[in-house]
Amino acid sequence: MWLACSSSEAPTASASAGSAGAAGKAGKAGAGGKASAGAPSAGSAGASAGGAGAAGSPGAAGGAGSAGGAGAGPKTCTGRPLPPSIPPDWLEWTGWSCECSLYYPPDGPSALPSLTWEPWGDAVPPGVDCRRASYTAFGDARVIRTRAALDSSTGHSLVQLAVEGQTPKDDSNTFYLALDVDTDRPLSVMSQPSMLDCGRKTLLDGQFLLGGVAGGRQIVYRPERGEWANAEEGWVGVTFAPGEAPTVGARIPVQTKLFSTTWLASQAGVFEWHVGKMLFAPWGGATVPVLKSSDDADGQPPVGLMPLPNGHALLEVGGNVTRGVWAWSEASGAVPILRKFGDTTQGDGGVGSDGKDIVWVRGTGKPPGVEAPYTKLDVMTAPYSLDPAAVQATARRLKAGNDDYFPKRYVVGCGYAARALSPIVGGGDFNGVDLALTNISAIRHRLVELREFQSGHPG
Prior knowledge:
Elements: E1 2-7, E2 41-42, E3 91-93, E4 102-104, E5 116-119, E6 128-134, E7 142-150, E8 157-164, E9 174-180, E10 185-192, E11 209-214, E12 217-222, E13 232-239, E14 247-253, E15 262-265, E16 269-274, E17 277-282, E18 288-292, E19 302-307, E20 313-318, E21 323-329, E22 333-338, E23 347-353, E24 357-364, E25 376-383, H1 388-394, E26 396-400, E27 411-413, E28 416-421, E29 424-425, E30 429-430, E31 433-439, E32 444-450
Antiparallel strand pairs: 1-6, 2-7, 3-4, 5-6, 7-8, 8-9, 9-10, 11-12, 12-13, 13-14, 15-16, 16-17, 17-18, 19-20, 20-21, 21-22, 23-24, 24-25, 25-26, 27-28, 28-31, 29-30, 31-32
């Protein structure tokens, strides 16, 4: 389940609940626009295909087909029984490895159901239309992760879901879907049948993670730490062409024992983020540097990345001692647009942008050189620009901030900004998720308390 909000006054962006991102979007006619926001939630039961004795199909891109046996049902490349939530006619792709195979439908996702929407309830202010969506497929499954983006070529909001299917105990069968929120239709789907064969030894090892939807494809990436012989990590992508097989986009040796690499898709290519440095590779091109700690005058490492619909990206650097924002494009390279070098009493973070407006939180009044709360936080906005002087000259305050440190980043679109809040109540428990909507042009602010999000996960 995730949330889409629109206003009767103007379309809005929506904030992510849970750890997922979201994208602002002017939506369907009469709805005022809708944008997706992710939250871990329970999916409802839907169609699933099993079938005993189905014959295995030849694997794509260098993989052997699933072994079928009369009465035994299809099996994966390693001989493990195919989970019942994966239809037996799907093709197995072993382009990464036999152990880390992925399945995909031979005719694309046309047979999969559409998104379903329902009213959110009474916990929203007048004039704001909030709905929640669920995805009914793959049997008794649940949405476990989401990412979202704005497709600059169509203007549609896209969402990428990781849906946990039916598996034996201590294993996980995961579906990776890309969906168009404006048409409610799936664009592509892949499924990992098991994590046990793929090297699951500690948390996240052996599991592909969401890398985003952009450039007419979705990508997933495999994190790994260099604690195993010949360890590799990288990303896999699949286009929206019906029946298209996945392909390996990048594959590199693991660089450290303690940290893995994150890959994120953008309209222009894929960003690679690893231990104090960020790299970029255009679709089908060579990797180039984006930003590393030594590029920052204070030696602060990049800690956050937001690809923008225009092919640019926003990069946050620093931590709780100091914080700042760089912007990047292929033409300009990295530019410190919100960065106060040498001054640890103030900082800028929680940044979001749609390529037109930037929204962020500015903290001031902190003791120098220490990890401590800022005494004052303000939500700021400015027109997006790669010129630091232009951003500073046009920056203006919207409202007071709500946190001691920098918050979850803002999602911006259609003149609105939104972000998720996670209030900690008695005993340190997370009790629901609050959604803050800020109207950039009218400088209004609403706080919507959404107690239905009792997921037990921090937002």
